[in-house]
Amino acid sequence: QLQASGGGLVQAGGSLRLSCAASGRTFSSYIMGWFRQAPGKEREFVATINWSGGTTYYADSVKGRFTTSKDNAKNTVYLQMNSLKPEDTAVYYCAARWSLALGTRGSDYDYWGQGTLVTVSS
User: Mean pLDDT score of the chain, rounded to an integer?
Assistant: First the structure.
């Protein structure tokens, strides 16, 4: 299971750090991904990180503002979000993929956590 947390209400320009804790299995060998879904919009890719944490890839809309990392000892992946904008408002989901390749599509992922809501006020 994946449990996302850390969402909340923040003003534009602020920061939040989301966490995604895994339980029931070890996700240290998995590709991890972050996705988000804004009201009335389709789910979109945000970021992904490989099993070691050494390789990451970001959507253009968050590149330079968001950073994903993982702590395999804690079975947890993080999404540090800085310089938040109102358009970042969404429910954020973490997901895990059993593969050697990073994935940017929701269908690439095998396990999903429940979402955590991020609201950025202007």
Answer: 94
